[in-house]
Design a protein that fits this description.
5-stranded parallel sheet; about 280 residues
């Protein structure tokens, strides 16, 4: 009985530019009229009911080919049967062949799961290419968290970053912060007072900023994360650090869960923190 070859293994041969169908490998599709609807590139169509009559001519033409792969739609009946008929014909030839006959080195295989499995693999590959293309053309993201003791200028640093963007659009603030800085729910946010640089930060605050890279003209989504100052008291400092570490871990898990999901969101921002800037007090 012929052994199976996976669609992935066969695809490596078919896509290899140094390999040629009919020379380095041969795919024999034993389906009938459905061959015309779709088939593996370079495949030879020999309907299963013709295999007894045509096995000899296939051997005459392709005896030099090191690998012959048979398949039908699912490779459950017609494909394996055709491979068996072909192999029996080969074995009969080898009984009277010279020792240097290339048929001795020829491997006969059956495509696992047939053309149906090949099609599913090809569709998965195309879907992966589409997802990759979507990600390549998606907005770039960068999430930065600023941490450090009280009074070292963390909020001022973040505000300075905002001020430095050549094109700035405030994409999202929490409703409470939007009201804090504008007084209304739908008013534009003043980019020069996003972060409260005068009073201390008491909780983790986030601001989503959308800007444009002047060099590439790509949209860049930046999330700026302000954090409470780490207290000098050891217990309070430990609690604050644990809160920050928990926030980083939570966002990382969310990103991993999104990456592992069957259907990735096309609009979901990458949530994990790309960089943490720890600001220290000047000496």
């Amino acid at each position: 009985m012929a052994s199976f070859i996976s669609a992935q293994e066969l695809a490596q041969l078919v896509r290899d530019p140094t390999k040629t169908a009919g020379t380095d490998y041969l795919v024999v599709d034993v389906r009938d009229s459905d061959f015309a609807v779709g088939h593996i590139p370079g495949a030879l169509n020999v309907p299963a009911h013709d295999m007894y009559a045509k096995a000899g001519s296939i051997i005459d033409t392709y005896s030099h080919v090191p690998l012959v792969v048979f398949h039908c739609m699912l490779s459950q009946q017609r494909g394996p049967k055709a491979a068996r008929i072909y192999k029996e014909t080969v074995d009969g030839r080898l009984k009277v062949s010279a020792p240097n006959d290339p048929l001795f080195a020829q491997s006969v295989r059956v495509l696992d799961r047939g053309f149906g499995g090949w099609s599913r693999m090809a569709n998965d590959r195309q879907a992966a290419h589409r997802r990759l293309s979507e990600r390549r053309h998606a907005d770039e993201t960068f999430n930065i968290m600023v941490a450090g003791p009280r009074g070292v200028g963390k909020s001022t640093l973040l505000q300075t970053l905002c001020d430095s963007f050549s094109v700035l659009h405030i994409d999202a603030l929490s409703e409470g912060e939007r009201q804090m800085y504008t007084g209304t729910d739908d008013a534009d946010v003043d980019p020069f007072c996003i972060f409260d640089t005068l009073s201390g930060t008491t909780h983790i605050r986030r601001c989503h900023v959308r800007t444009i890279d002047p060099a590439t003209k790509h949209v860049v989504r930046v999330e700026l994360i302000d954090t409470p100052g780490i207290d000098r008291d050891e217990v309070a400092a430990s609690a604050c650090v644990n809160e920050l570490c928990g926030e980083i871990e939570r966002r990382f898990r969310n990103t991993v869960d999104e990456e592992m999901s069957v259907r990735r969101s096309s609009v979901e921002r990458t949530q994990h923190v790309h960089a943490v800037v720890y600001v220290v007090a000047p000496p």
